[in-house]
Every structure is written in C-alpha cells, then in structure tokens.
Specification:
This protein has 272 residues and is of the alpha/beta class. It has helices at residues 19-30, 42-56, 72-82, 107-135, 159-176, 196-200, 203-206, 217-230, 239-250, 253-267; strands at 10-14, 34-38, 60-62, 87-92, 138-143, 182-188, 191-193, 214-216, 234-236. The protein has a single domain (4-267), classed as 3-Layer(aba) Sandwich (Rossmann fold). A seven-stranded parallel beta sheet has the order 3-2-1-4-5-6-9, sandwiched between helices.
C-alpha cells in the first residue's frame, strides 16, 4: 500500500506511551496514518500526540485505558466506533514482565498479566477484524518476542509462554484472513532498548548481554510495519535473533532445555 493510500486511514497502537509502542506510532504517522493512542498514562500519550503533530502533521486521538481491566477493550472499541474511526492498522503492543518465579508473586499479578498479554490482544482482534474484512483492507501486528521461539527459562514464568501463544494465534488468524485483504503478523524482537527492563527490574541483568544483541525500538517498529505490509506472518527482528531461533529449532529438545537452564539466570530475575 502506498503512503498516499494511507492518508485517510486510522491505526491503533496499544502500549503507545513509550518504547516500541511509541516507535510504532511514529513509524505509522510517517507513513500517513492517523493514530489512536492508548495506554495507562494520559500525560505520556498527550505528549506523544503533540510530538506526532509536530513531526508528522498527524492527527491523533488519546484514549487512556488499562488493559488489565477485562472491560477495557469493549470500552476502547466503543469509543472508536462512536467517533467513526475505522481502524485499519492495529498494533497489539502493550506488555510487560512479572519478575520472579510463579509462586513468588501474588496470583492477581499473574491474572492481570494474562489479561494484558493474551486476552486483550485476542479481543482487540476479535472486535476490529470484522470491520477490516468488510472494508477489504487491514493490518494487524501482534508484538510477540524471540522468547516465544526458544525454550522456557527460570523467572518471568509466563512471559515466553504468552509470546508463544501470540505467535500461534497470529498464524491461525492469518490463515483465517486469507483472501479478505487483511494481513496478520507476529513481530518478534529480541533485546530492545526501551523501558521494559527498567519496569521489570531486570536492567542490571540484561545489561550483561553484548551490545550486538540489542536493537533500537525504532528499528523494531520499522521492520515490523514493513513485514506487515509485505504480508509476512511471522517476522523475527535482527539476523542474530533469527540465528538463535534457527539454532534452537535444530537442537534436540533436551539439549535446548539444558542450555536455557544454564543461561536463564544471566538475563532473568529468577529469585523466589
């Protein structure tokens, strides 16, 4: 799709207040999309909207919501429908990690995590996909992770599992959308410069990783949008990350699990 063809179209980005979400907003604004920005922090979203206007001349709508609330997606969808905003590019980016082992955290934290990283993206797809199909055009980007392609590690117990779920869900939804003009893509970054590791308390641990393994949020977003426009179903950002995924795919399960067991405490806050 040409940039000119996107001028009247709207994109919705969750978790847009910082990091990869903000980078997706800038990338889409630069391609002519108008933005619906959602996250919990209204002040961050309003600052981003002003920046998008200044840098790209982009109209933005700010809708603050907490996707941990099971009713949030329905309210968000209702607001965009009431405003007549036809969402043709959906970026399910909102996410975070819960440090420690499964039983070291209250169940409520895990419950909210599952709601934000699994249930909300599925419901957003469920609600916006029919409109895309009716118009015969649409893109959905589910921001997954390299963690969804490698064996599980100690600590952040649900993170890799949630990203594997998102990859498989994306594949199924992409096949269901064949011929409808809607492209569904799982974008799978590895280590990315953002606030993610500060929020999860793992910055000191992951800082030990070599610099060549890191990518900027801007590069992740640019590659993700390009992958969606090409019609890719699963895209892993960065050659080193694609090599890691391929290595674990070729290794026997036992060996791969043993490697992750040895390495997991180097980059996960895995204490009880």
């Amino acid at each position: 799709m040409s940039d000119k063809a996107t001028k009247a179209r709207w994109a919705l980005v969750t978790g847009a207040s910082a990091g990869i979400g903000a980078a997706f907003a800038h990338e889409l604004a630069g391609r002519g999309y108008r933005l619906v920005l959602t996250a919990r922090r209204t002040d961050r979203l309003e600052a981003l909207a002003r920046d998008l206007q200044a840098r790209h001349g982009t109209e933005s709508r700010v809708i603050a919501c907490d996707l941990a609330d099971p009713a949030a997606v329905e309210r968000l969808f209702g607001e965009t429908e009431a405003a007549g905003l036809a969402i043709d590019f959906l970026v399910n980016n909102a996410g975070y990690g819960v440090p420690g082992s499964l039983v070291s955290q209250p169940w409520e934290r895990h419950r909210d995590f599952i709601q934000v990283l699994m249930t909300a993206p599925v419901e957003l797809c469920y609600r916006y996909l029919p409109g895309m199909r009716a118009r015969g055009v649409g893109h959905i980007v589910n921001v997954a992770s390299l963690a969804g392609h490698v064996p599980g590690s100690a600590g952040h117990t649900l993170y890799g599992a949630s990203k594997t779920f998102l990859v498989r869900f994306t594949q199924s939804l992409a096949f269901e959308s064949n011929g409808a003009g809607v492209h569904v893509t799982a974008v799978c970054p590895g280590f990315t410069y953002s606030e993610f590791h500060d929020v999860t308390g793992s910055r000191q641990l992951v800082s030990r990783m070599p610099k060549f393994m890191w990518m900027s949020a801007e590069a992740v977003a640019r590659q993700g949008v390009e992958a969606s426009l090409r019609g890719d179903i699963v895209y892993i950002n960065g050659g080193i990350n694609r090599a890691i995924k391929s290595m674990f795919k070729l290794l026997p399960d036992g060996l791969g699990l043993a490697m992750m067991k040895r390495q997991s405490r180097r980059f996960r806050a895995a204490s009880d």
